[in-house]
Design brief:
The protein is mainly beta. It has three helices and twelve strands, in the order αβββββαβαββββββ. The chain starts with a helix and ends with a strand.
Length: 154
Amino acid sequence: MTVPGRLMRDVLGSFCSGVVVVTAAGPEPVGFTCQSFASLSLDPPLVTFAPGRGSRTWPRIREIGSFCVNILAADQRHLSDAFARSGTDKFAGVRWSPSELGSPVLDGVLAWIDCELWAEYDGGDHTIVVGEVRALAAAPGEPLLFHRGAYLAS
C-alpha cells in the first residue's frame, strides 16, 4: 500500500515543530531554514536534522564540516522566511556573531548549538544529518512554532 504524499503531509502536519536556521561560515556565510530538527543522543552529544535532497545550501555546509543550529524565537518569523528563500542574500541585514567553530549565531535566537558533522544517512527525498555538539547556549523566551502548514501565534 502506498501512502499519498499529500495525506502524509496533512497528517504529520498535526505534529507541532520548532523552526531552526542551520548556518555555516565559508568564504561567505550560508544558511537555510529547517523544521526537521531534534536532539538525538546525550552520550555522545548528537543532534539531527534533515535537509531536502534538492537543497543547494546543504552541500556547501557539508563541505565546511561544521555548522550552527539556531533555534528561532517566537518573534523571528522574518528570519525563517528569509532563510527559506533561494537565490537571495539570506544574511542581508541579519545581525550575527561567530560561534566557537566560526558559524553564524543569529542575534536574538532562543538557543544555538554549534556542531561538527558526524554522519549522514539516506532519508528518501531528504538527507539525515547528524551533528556532534561542541558548544551550545540558550536564552529565555518562547519558540517559533509551526503547525499544519502555518506559524502559530505566540
